[in-house]
Amino acid sequence: VQLQASGGGLVQAGGSLNLSCAASGRTFSGFAISWFRQAVGKEREGISVIASDRSTYYVDFVSGRFTLSRDDAKKAVYLQMNSLLPEDTGVYYCATGPNLRANYYRDEGIKVSAFASWGQGTHVTVSS
Questions:
Q1: Which of 36, 41, 48, 87, by CA, is between 20 and 30 Å from 79?
Q2: Per-residue DSSP letters for the chain?
Q3: How far apart are CA 86 and CA 88, in angstroms?
């Protein structure tokens, strides 16, 4: 599976963006899809995951502001980001991972090492 993230841009604090992750190649319906972000000078961190059963998990600092959805027919996953904060600035990546329910990732964390296929990132800049 090859992934391509898009939809990033420059937005003011409080604004919204909708990121897309499009897949090519064989179907990704059997994978969990996660979004990671990486700020300048910081490590890449997992922020949300959607399993094939559409269960979702969000880390605390995006919960209530970000919403995941997936359309397996279109081979796409979407990340709706609302109430954006300057600290949301970074490069956002999508990746495929083991088809485990979201509560597994809630318990174990969304770890970079668990995700195999990565898309090219999309830049998000939130101005204050």
A1: 41
A2: -EEEEE--EEEETT--EEEEEEEESS--TTSEEEEEEE-TTS--EEEEEE-TT--EEE-TTTTTTEEEEEETTTTEEEEEE-S--GGG-EEEEEEEE----HHHHHHH---GGG--EEPBPEEEEEE-
A3: 5
* Furthest CA-CA distance within the chain: 41
Residues 76-103: pLDDT tens digits? 999 999 999 999 999 999 999 888 999 9
Spell out the residues 6+ positions from residue 63 whose beta carbon is closer than 8 angstroms to its own.
none
Could you tell me how many helices (H) and strands (E) the chain has, helices first? 1, 11
